[in-house]
Amino acid sequence: MSLPDKAFPVSWDQFHRDARALAWRLADNGQEWRAMVCITRGGLVPAAIISRELNIRMIETVCIASYHDYDTQGQMKVLKGISPEIAKDGGEGVLIVDDLTDTGKTAAEVRAMLPKAHFAAVYAKPKGRPLVDTFVTEVSQDTWIYFPWDLGFTYQEPIAKGTRG
Ligand SMILES: O=P(O)(O)OC[C@H]1O[C@H](OP(=O)(O)OP(=O)(O)O)[C@H](O)[C@@H]1O
Ligand SMILES: [Mg+2]
To answer: Beta strand 137-138 with 6-9: parallel, antiparallel or unpaired?
Structure first.
């Protein structure tokens, strides 16, 4: 397991603020959404926050697994697809939500299912950014984002003494 160069740890507070900021951006867009498609599992958390802010009640999941060993991307598996009712008209009027886009492979897979939907992610890395319509914060490709649901409290090495050579 190789450690990424840079770490971007996100607290629950920060995630809530950033997901709400994403909801503000989507609201400013002025579009009415007929449904939300949430990419499990990471998309479930921003989906709860955004659906509350934008009053979206019709929520579908697309269940995709790809990162098997925390930072190594394995083969992508679609465990559950999108219902025909939600996927109709190429997904026009549908909002896709995920926590982040990294290489953009997950986003590309779901975009292929719903070519006319709007894709929103809280965080984006440069490779994935072109696949996202709306996001809040960009971090560099060599940064690993640590989400609050994956974290516990531990001692942190100072940056100058850490893994950077
Ligand atoms: O842009 P990509 O390189 O495809 O990576 C982004 C995807 O990776 C993570 O999901 P993961 O597959 O780890 O599953 P999880 O959401 O169940 O944690 C994350 O939640 C995104 O969905
Ligand atoms: Mg995911």
So the answer is: unpaired
